[in-house]
Amino acid sequence: QDIIPQPLLDQYLSMTDPARAQTVDTEIAKHCAYSLPGVALTLGRQNWHCLKDTYETLASDVQWKVRRTLAFSIHELAVILGDQLTAADLVPIFNGFLKDLDEVRIGVLKHLYDFLKLLHADKRREYLYQLQEFVVTDNSRNWRFRYELAEQLILILELYNPNDVYDYLRHIALTLCSDKVSEVRWISFKLVVAILQKFYANNANALGLNFINELVVRFRHCSKWVGRQAFAFICQVGMLSFICFHFGASV
């Protein structure tokens, strides 16, 4: 009560009551979800127990817009709560969002790196098996979803060791390089180059050579011109990265 007056907190917590959504405002739960990180920050992690049940209620709300709002801010809430509370209370919610509608999944995808970097290495490694699921969307024409995945993977590379990158992320990168949408392919070429840089920066030369050979077989000797063009673009991006690295610029 020395932080937020109890009546004010009670009023906020009551906003998740389905009866209020029907009689007062159908958007009230969404407004509550939008404000929750701010309320959590004000209360502090020591008072998270006051909001936990409300958060879980909102995370299972029948309106996807409510769940989407929480998905976009779950990484911010993780920073507020710290690693222990995040692992105990947010990871289960996060896992549920991963299996939700694309409109909700995009929220966690846009900040996937921000959330994963807050987890312990062993917990973070569990998500290597699930990253492949982001390639599949409810609507195959939703190419921006796959574009966002490639962008996030470029950042996520630093969170995993070369062997994990080779065993899991490499397959996703190759799939995205063959996407039907050129914008997705182009960002994926940057991902491929970033993977190669990861290998050689960590002295995983054998993995890098194997990956290069795979790129040659898959794209350089492809029977379709799109595949051969992809190989040329990968070489172009790789050369630009090499030049910029030595001259202190960035691609």
From TrEMBL:
Record GO cellular component, one term: cytoplasm
Is Cytoplasm there in the keyword field?
A: no
Q: GO molecular-function annotation terms? A: protein phosphatase regulator activity
Q: Which keywords has UniProt assigned to this entry? A: Repeat
Q: Tell me the superkingdom of the source.
A: Eukaryota
| Keyword presence, Repeat | yes
Q: Which PANTHER family match?
A: SERINE/THREONINE-PROTEIN PHOSPHATASE PP2A 65 KDA REGULATORY SUBUNIT (PTHR10648), WW-BINDING DOMAIN-CONTAINING PROTEIN-RELATED (PTHR10648:SF7)
What's this protein's name? PP4R1 phosphatase
Give the taxonomic lineage as stored in the record: Eukaryota, Metazoa, Chordata, Craniata, Vertebrata
